């Protein structure tokens, strides 16, 4: 692989040399004091991320526990739902993209799920959510930052609806937590889920959950798959261990990555992500391209990834040549998922990217468009981005 390879996919994202080195340290037992110190370090920094993801660093939660699971965010999503439901529990899942749909499918497997569904890329209509959630609803699931479409969903407003009906609120903050604002108590979040490999800039393979103290009495681990019994995970977390063998190198990578976040500080990190995503958007607009999300007054553009419609000459059957031209320049970006393949491209600014890397991504995409015959003004795009990154 080339030395200057630049990973701009919305996960996994680049990890630092220190994270890579932490993962290659000699193995220890997951029951040793050395491992407990790793888990405790990761928990301390995860507590910081979950509890201080605000533009001014103010606390977001009166109390809760950060857990780390061996398994990616999908396991975290399932653990959250399965511990709060049984087969008869009414669950309302808000769906406007691939990951909202995944939550709905998980909810359907563990409870009695109703979807409030919108086309992928559309914004959530709060009236439709308010109509679907009733006093019988036990759990509401929601994706904060819909990675498949680049829409930042109104987690707070849906949280208010859930709270009015005393439903538990499970939120996927997989591509927002660690890169954008995320409030636990103000948004009525009971369980928040995130992934190692996204805005935390850790390796893939582990996920993190935050279980708010108020939600703990509702957790019933006996209802969940054995491996995801959150009562058990919560008990073991008190002594900085997991019920089963921990993925030691991944926990070490996560501890290192979250320590870096703590050092940068969430206010600066949120501001940087907002600048960088704005730079991507402004650059692509300056190239004459269109954003994919269809925003209403409650939705926003994602601050951690950007989804753009592919222009004539690079869409449909012409899309592979464009993506190949990007890849040939040592940069990796993503296309659309499922039926959006050939319609859009997506770039991430999650993790610790520098302004130079953002500009390189823009330059590469502009050059790749020109190579396939799309008339994109790369210099105008770079000027627009530089304005935002100042
Ligand atoms: C918003 C969101 N939720 C959940 C997931 C699932 O993560 P994983 O495939 O790592 O389990 C992803 C992955 O891209 C995601 O972006």
Automatic annotation (TrEMBL):
GO terms for molecular function: transaminase activity. Residues 73-257 form the Aminotransferase class V domain. Its cofactor is pyridoxal 5'-phosphate. Keywords: Aminotransferase, Pyridoxal phosphate, Transferase. SUPFAM superfamilies: PLP-dependent transferases. Belongs to the class-V pyridoxal-phosphate-dependent aminotransferase family. This is Pyridoxal-phosphate-dependent aminotransferase family protein. It comes from Halobacterium litoreum.
């Amino acid at each position: 692989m080339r030395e200057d390879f630049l990973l701009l996919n919305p996960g996994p994202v680049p990890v630092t040399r220190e994270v890579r080195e932490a993962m290659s340290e000699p193995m220890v037992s997951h029951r040793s004091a050395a491992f407990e110190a790793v888990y405790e370090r990761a928990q301390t920094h995860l507590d910081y991320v979950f509890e201080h993801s605000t533009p001014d660093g103010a606390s977001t939660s009166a109390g809760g526990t950060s857990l780390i699971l061996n398994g990616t965010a999908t396991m975290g999503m399932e653990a959250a739902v399965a511990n709060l439901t049984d087969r008869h529990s009414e669950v309302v899942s808000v769906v406007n993209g691939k990951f909202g749909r995944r939550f709905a499918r998980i909810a359907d497997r563990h409870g009695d799920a109703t979807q409030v569904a919108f086309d992928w890329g559309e914004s959530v209509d709060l009236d439709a959510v308010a109509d679907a959630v009733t006093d019988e609803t036990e759990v509401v699931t929601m994706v904060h930052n819909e990675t498949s479409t680049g829409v930042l969903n109104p987690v707070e407003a849906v949280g208010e609806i859930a709270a009015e009906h005393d439903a538990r609120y499970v939120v996927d903050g997989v591509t927002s937590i660690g890169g954008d604002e995320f409030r636990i108590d103000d948004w009525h979040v009971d369980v928040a889920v995130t992934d190692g490999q996204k805005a935390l800039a850790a390796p893939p393979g582990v996920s993190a959950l935050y279980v708010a103290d108020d939600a703990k009495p509702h957790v019933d681990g006996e209802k969940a798959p054995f491996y995801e019994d959150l009562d058990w995970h919560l008990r073991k977390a008190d002594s900085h261990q997991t019920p089963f063998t921990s993925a030691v190198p991944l926990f070490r990578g996560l501890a290192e990555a979250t320590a870096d976040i703590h050092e940068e500080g969430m206010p600066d990190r949120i501001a940087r992500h907002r600048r960088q995503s704005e730079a991507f958007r402004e650059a692509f607009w300056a190239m004459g391209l269109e954003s994919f999300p269809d925003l209403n007054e409650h939705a926003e553009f994602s601050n951690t990834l950007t989804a753009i419609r592919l222009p004539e000459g690079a869409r449909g059957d012409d899309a592979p040549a464009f993506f190949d031209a990007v890849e040939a320049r040592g940069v990796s970006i993503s296309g659309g998922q499922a039926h959006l393949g050939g319609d859009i491209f997506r770039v991430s600014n999650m993790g610790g990217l520098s302004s130079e890397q953002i500009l390189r991504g823009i330059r590469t995409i502009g050059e790749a468009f020109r190579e396939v015959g799309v008339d994109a003004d790369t210099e105008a795009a770079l000027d627009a981005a530089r304005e935002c990154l100042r």
